[in-house]
Design a protein that fits this description.
The chain folds into 2 domains: 87 residues, Elongation Factor Tu (Ef-tu), domain 3 (Beta Barrel); 64 residues, no CATH class. Helix content is 34%, strand content 31%. α4 packs across α6. The strands form 2 sheets. Strands 1-7-4-5-6-3-2 form a 7-stranded antiparallel beta sheet. Strands 8-9 form a two-stranded antiparallel sheet. The chain is an alpha+beta fold. The longest helix is centred in the last third of the chain and has 15 residues. It is built from 6 helices and 9 strands, in the order βββαβββαβααααββ.
Length: 173
């Protein structure tokens, strides 16, 4: 491999609603010394998925990182919170965190809805990125239409579910 890689065993823990494994400061240094911002990596858990998942590990503050494990990675590995798993992590020079822009088909709808625009502006960058990734993954026109309507609704303040979480209610995720 051209990039630094690391293999270790760890127990999957949960932080809020997010399953993760902790990458210690010493382990992180093996991948990239003195790295303090989100670290782009490719990850496999128990050798799965076949094509390593691209993600940014998030800094803990002590030189270590949270390696959040997406449901697709855990599902492919047959792993759940509490399981001890083998984790393979490789630094990824090429990863830029997925799409950085709203898909044009959604951006044009957002421009026409002032309340939704205000809601969008108030979202933290991580939530915006999550929405952009989700919307960018949609293929069919039906799915785009359905999800655009729901996204504009929750961004405009409606209390309903979108992207597997409740929005604008006591159980905001």
């Amino acid at each position: 491999m051209s990039n630094a890689s690391l293999c270790f065993r760890a127990r999957i823990a949960i932080r809020g609603i997010n399953p993760y494994v902790l990458v210690s400061a010493k382990q992180a240094t093996w991948l990239r010394a003195e790295w303090r911002k989100p670290m782009p990596v490719r990850v496999q858990v128990n050798g799965k998925p076949k094509v390593p998942w691209r993600i940014n590990m998030m800094p803990v503050g002590d030189g270590g990182f949270f390696l959040y494990l997406h449901a697709k990675v855990r599902g492919a590995a047959g792993a759940e919170v509490g399981d001890v798993v083998e984790v393979d992590v490789e630094f990824d020079d090429a990863y830029r965190g997925g799409p950085a822009r709203l898909p044009a088909w959604f951006a044009s709808r957002l421009r026409l809805n002032r309340r939704a625009q205000q809601g969008w502006k108030q979202l933290p960058p991580s939530r915006k990125k999550e929405i952009v990734r989700y919307l960018s993954s949609l293929k069919s026109e039906e799915a785009k239409q359905r999800n655009a309507q729901r996204a504009l609704s929750v961004l405009g303040g409606a209390a309903e579910r979108f992207m597997a979480r409740s929005w604008n209610s006591d159980s905001d995720g």
